[in-house]
């Protein structure tokens, strides 16, 4: 069985690229191959001009990796963790000290640098781990679920740091996330992989536009049949009626509203409820994979729990 099936994509220098997919889709395998942690059995990949298979050492020097699981040492201070990573990357001590100061300031950890990491909050540990991945000044940074498990306030702070790295420091970033609003907010382009193949790729705006419009839902409280009128609206993609409720898919729902209000009023009817939804990345993911990302992850977790329970019962 192929984990990854003849995929092809590129990440532009200075781009913030999102790589999305349910567990088992081939996402982790792809990242492992790109970061030299798994062999490429067929095909070719290059990072910063270096062939991943032929020159893995040069690739490792060119990339930083921030893992999903926390890897910083609780029994060391923040500064000690950074300097340890610097030594592993053979960064000269003087240069590492200067770089550490800059990075601690970037993620607002200067005041906590001399404290043991075990006293840090989850958000502080994530920020420290981000620094550790940057100490050797990589050209490309891999972020694996950078805000997983963080509360919304701390997650927003991390978003700001990631944006600053990309826009101000011109860092190329390859990111995975289970928060589709995060990918929508941060990424210049995304690719969705499923069953070992990249199904779609493009900017969040392009992918949402392909869904074919916004969804307008309204309830006409006094009855009346408006199917003919709604079907005549420019650009209608889909139209459904259930009782007195109409569900219409069309481009520019906001633009269509004044005309709808006028026609309903002309017929002496009243709108009891109205709502409209703009296309979202979650809808894109649902269209591509047949399930929402959160449902996909929940299903995977349930499967793992079932296997674990079966193992314990033997």
Explain the overall architecture.
By secondary structure, the protein is α/β, with parallel strands linked by helices. It has three domains: 16-202, Rossmann fold, CATH 3.40.50.300; 212-278, Alpha-Beta Plaits (2-Layer Sandwich), CATH 3.30.70; 282-313, no CATH class. The protein has twelve helices and twelve strands. α3 (78-88) packs across α4 (93-106).
Distance between the termini: 28 Å
Helix content: 40-55%
Query: How much strand content do the residues show?
Result: 15-25%
Q: SS-based structural class?
A: alpha/beta
Net shape:
elongated
Strand order, main sheet: write it out.
4-5-6-1-7-8
What CATH first level of the largest domain would be assigned?
Alpha Beta
Which key features would you list for this structure?
four-stranded antiparallel β-sheet; single chain; disordered C terminus; 3 domains; six-stranded mixed β-sheet; Rossmann fold; Alpha-Beta Plaits; 314 residues
Report a brief summary of the structure.
With 314 residues, the protein is α/β, with parallel strands linked by helices. It contains 12 helices and 12 strands. It folds into 3 domains: 16-202, P-loop containing nucleotide triphosphate hydrolases (Rossmann fold); 212-278, Alpha-Beta Plaits; 282-313, no CATH class.
Write the layout of secondary structure elements.
Blueprint: E1 16-20, H1 27-34, E2 46-47, E3 50-51, H2 56-62, E4 63-66, H3 78-88, H4 93-106, H5 122-132, E5 140-144, H6 152-167, E6 172-176, H7 180-186, E7 189-194, E8 197-202, H8 204-209, E9 214-220, H9 227-231, E10 238-242, E11 245-250, H10 253-266, E12 271-277, H11 281-289, H12 293-313
Parallel strand pairs: 1-6, 1-7, 4-5, 5-6
Antiparallel strand pairs: 2-3, 7-8, 9-11, 9-12, 10-11
């Amino acid at each position: 069985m192929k984990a990854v099936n003849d995929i092809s994509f590129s990440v532009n220098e200075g781009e913030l690229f999102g790589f999305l997919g349910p567990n088992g889709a081939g996402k982790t395998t792809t990242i492992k191959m790109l970061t030299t942690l798994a062999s490429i059995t067929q095909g070719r990949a290059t990072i910063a001009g270096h062939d991943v298979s032929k020159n893995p050492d040069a690739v490792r020097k060119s990339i930083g990796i921030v893992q999903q699981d926390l890897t910083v040492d609780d029994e060391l201070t923040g500064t000690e963790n950074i300097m340890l990573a610097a030594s592993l990357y053979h960064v000269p001590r003087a240069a590492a000290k200067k770089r550490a100061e800059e990075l601690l300031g970037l993620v607002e950890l200067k005041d906590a640098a001399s404290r043991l990491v075990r006293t840090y909050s989850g958000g502080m540990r994530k920020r420290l781990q981000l620094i550790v991945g940057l100490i050797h000044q990589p050209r490309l940074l891999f972020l694996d679920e950078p805000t997983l498990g963080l509360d919304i306030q701390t997650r927003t702070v991390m978003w700001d740091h990631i944006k600053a790295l990309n826009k101000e420091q011109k860092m190329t970033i390859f990111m995975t996330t289970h928060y589709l609003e995060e990918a929508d907010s941060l990424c210049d382009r995304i690719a969705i992989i499923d069953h070992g193949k990249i199904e779609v790729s493009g900017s969040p705006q392009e992918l949402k536009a392909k869904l074919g419009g916004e969804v307008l839902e309204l309830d006409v409280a006094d009855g009346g049949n408006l199917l003919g009128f709604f079907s005549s609206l420019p650009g209608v993609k889909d139209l459904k009626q259930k009782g007195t409720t109409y569900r219409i898919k069309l481009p520019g729902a906001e633009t269509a509203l004044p005309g709808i209000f006028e026609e309903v009023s002309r017929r002496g009817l009243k709108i009891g409820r109205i709502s409209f939804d703009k296309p979202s990345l979650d809808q894109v993911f649902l269209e591509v994979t047949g399930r929402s990302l959160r449902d996909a992850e929940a299903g995977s977790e349930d499967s793992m729990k079932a296997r674990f329970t079966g193992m314990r019962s033997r």
